Every structure is written in structure tokens, then in C-alpha cells.
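Summary for the steering committee. The consortium agreed at its last meeting that each partner would contribute one worked example illustrating the joint modelling workflow. Our contribution is presented below. We chose a case with several input lines so that the handling of multiple components could be demonstrated. No manual editing was applied between input and output; the record is shown as generated.
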Amino acid sequence: FHDRDGFIWFNGELINWRDAKLHVLTHALHYGSAVFEGIRAYGGEIFELTQHSERLVEGARIIDFEIPYSVAEIDEACRQVMKANNLVEAYLRPIAWRGSEQMGVSAQHNSINLAVAAWDWGSYFPMEQRLKGLRLTLAKYRRPDPATAPCKAKAAGLYMICTIEKHRAERAGYADALMFDYRGYVAECTGANVFFIKDGVIHTPTPDCFLDGITRRTVIGLAKKRGYEVIERHIQPEELGSFSECFITGTAAEVTPVSEIGEYKYTPGTISETLLKDYMELVQPSKQLAAE
Ligand code: PMP
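What follows is the complete predicted structure of the assembly.
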């Protein structure tokens, strides 16, 4: 992905995409000392930009460093990248990391760096195709105990097991894997939160050891606005067979129905469809979904 035209915001400057390089002794590469964001822009508008910038700054603090830019400056960097690359429908990837000045677990005096890349990313799967749903398998690795890992940070190191599980799922012909937590409760997918529906009520895992996604919170708001009951609670794996609908949420996934988890089957129904449409209308109010 490094060999292409465009501009990347790198420590305060817009530089050529191909020149946005790091040294091999970068602390973040060896010890996982990086936090990042995934943000989307629709019709030139960056969705919930400030919430993402705040999560980045907060995540860095959680993993013990202070990004040398304010939330407002990070917002502005994102806007500059959009403009420099003439983007309208886009995915933005801010990342903050410890640099390469000192080598070892301790990196008290290493530089703290920030870069923002952005690229063209239209989302529009036809509604019909989305409603067919994704097939998920069950992950083996579990989301760690908050006493074991800084699970509220969108930290690079926490994605190690996500990549392993995503690859395992893809090799077996699935779109993604459902991950459980350290207690065995249903947690999330490798890059998205999960929701279930039973008897007209929405159930979603309590985000006490994984990311409380910005899309997740948005969708809960949309559901409540529709008058749907949303219950956040611990969900046992044995319950997976008792739900009628399932969908995942995330900046990249938006709202995407699930048709299968292991041996269990789901059929996207009114609630999934309504929330998918409500979400797309919220993020891209100008688009006519009916025209898809
Ligand atoms: N969980 C994980 C592991 C993720 O990577 C993401 C995507 N950032 C989410 C949940 C959903 O978060 P958001 O809705 O803020 O994108």
C-alpha cells in the first residue's frame, strides 16, 4: 500500500505518500507502542471526527504517551489530508507511535510521532447483497481481561490476535470470526462490534473489555430513537442459537447483517434492515438508498 501517489500528513507536514517511511528500529514496531484510528468520510464530511481524535489522544495516554497535538489539531490534520488528496468518499487512518531514538522496552525519551493517511473508499454494497449477511466462524483467542491489557485503547498490539483470527476465518471461507472474552462471554468481531435480536429486543455485549465502538454507540442511539429496546449485557455462547437476527457495526463495516455464526443461522429482518438504512441515511443524508 506504500507505492502510490498522494499525500500523507506526517508530524505536521504533508509529504509524498512514498516518502512516509520509518526506521526499522522504531519502538512501535518492536513493542507495539502505537495507537490508531479508522475514520470514514461521506460526501466530503468526516463522520464523528472529533470523537475519533479524542479516542486517539485518550488511547495514547492509556498506553503511556502524550500525542504532541491537540484534538483540534488532529481534526485539522484529517481535514488537510482529505483536501490534499481531493477525497470525497474516504477512509482515514491516523496513527501515533513511539519513534526509534532509543532501543529497549524503556523508551521514555523517544519521539512521539503522528501521521494521518487517507484514501478513497466508497462503501456502497447494494442493499440486497448486504442483507444476505456475513458468515462468521468462532475465534479461539479471547479478548483479554482489562487487568491483562489496556483494552480501552485502540492500540496496535491488541490487533495481533485479531489478525490471526481474521486469517483463520478467511482461510476457512468465512468473512470474519466472532471473538469471546476472557470469561467466555461473546465479545466482538476482529474489527467490529456485534448485536443480536430476539423477540423484537436488541441485545449487545457490555463493552467492559473491548472497544465501545463509535458506530456501536451511534446505532444504539438510532435504535432507541426508533423505540427499540436495547439491552447491554453479558451474552453466553450457549445463547447464540436463541437469536433470530445478528449484525455487526464498525466504521468500516457500518451496519452489516450476519447470516451465520458457526452452526447457527440468522435471517436479517426488519430491525437489522431498519438500522442499516437509518445508519446510512445518517452518514450520507444526500444519498438515495432506494437508487442503489
Ligand atoms: N472493535 C474492534 C476490535 C475494532 O477494530 C473496531 C473498529 N474500530 C470496532 C470494534 C468498532 O469501532 P468503531 O465503531 O469506533 O469503528
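The pocket of 4'-deoxy-4'-aminopyridoxal-5'-phosphate is lined by residues 38, 162, 188, 191-193, 210-211, 213-216, 249-251 (CB under 6 Å). The chain has a mean pLDDT of 95.
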